[in-house]
From TrEMBL:
Identification of the protein by name: Urease accessory protein UreD
Family: Belongs to the UreD family.
Single Gene Ontology MF annotation: nickel cation binding
Subcellular locations according to the entry: Cytoplasm
Organism from which the protein derives: Methylobacterium bullatum
Subunit organization: UreD, UreF and UreG form a complex that acts as a GTP-hydrolysis-dependent molecular chaperone, activating the urease apoprotein by helping to assemble the nickel containing metallocenter of UreC. The UreE protein probably delivers the nickel.
Gene: ureD_2
The entry's keywords: Chaperone, Cytoplasm, Nickel insertion
Alphabetical list of Pfam families matching this protein: UreD
Amino acid sequence: MSDVGEEVRGISPEGAGRSRHSQARLVFVRGGGTTVLSRQVVPYPFHITRPFRMYPDHPDIATLYLQSASGGLYRADRLGLDITARPGSRAHVTTQSATVVHDTGAFAARQDTRLAIAGDAGLALHPDPMILFPGAALDLDTRIVVGPDARAIVSEGFASHDPTGMGRPFARIGLSLRIETEEGRILVNERSTLDGASLAGPASPLGTYAAYGSMAILGGVEGHPDIAALQGAADAVGCLCGASPLPNAAGLAVRVLAPSGGALSTAMDAVFAVAFEALFGVAPARRRK
């Protein structure tokens, strides 16, 4: 996973002015009957809490809040997050709130996420949605390496918001996901780019919906949540959800459409709860925000 730092440090757009190039690294291991954080490199603007033990009957699950010490993502920011889950560990990583992406001008912000989940490990990465301000351009690149019998839930989402109330769109968002085995076999490789003006127009590919979320649920078929239950969780809060198998029996792909960022957050939490209980054997504890 060492290539992430080189990618983050190696991008320096000419004329971008001051920007942040920063990478956080977290390593979870199994020890003493629970999951512990054996290594942490958390430079500004990243900040983390101590791991919480929120499941008395499942002490092997650790919950960690990933926080930001700044006001969001800005012009030409390059942030990286590298999480490793060693064999037998069980970790749930979440955020304290949505992340705002400000007007980036000609230089998009970028966030690279690299996850390595060993055999018999479980990782749930469930951040709050991104909030894209007018003029914001953002690239989200996620790469996941899974070992045998690894289980994971990885989600992301975004919504557009104009603080002035004028309905000005964000610039664009690029989404990239690659999932591969420890031997390097690519299971899933997908990319998409969405233009803010197109999403705000009458021919928006999202239709009447204003926010979008996705979730990859990875692991053996026996641990997959029921697709009807996933869809029902989103329907119950007024959102639209679709789920289908990923290529190469990698898991399930879930897509959620919502009328607003707040509704998206609620729906993604509801869908996540169904997936988490299926993969981890317990309903997720209420997260205090």
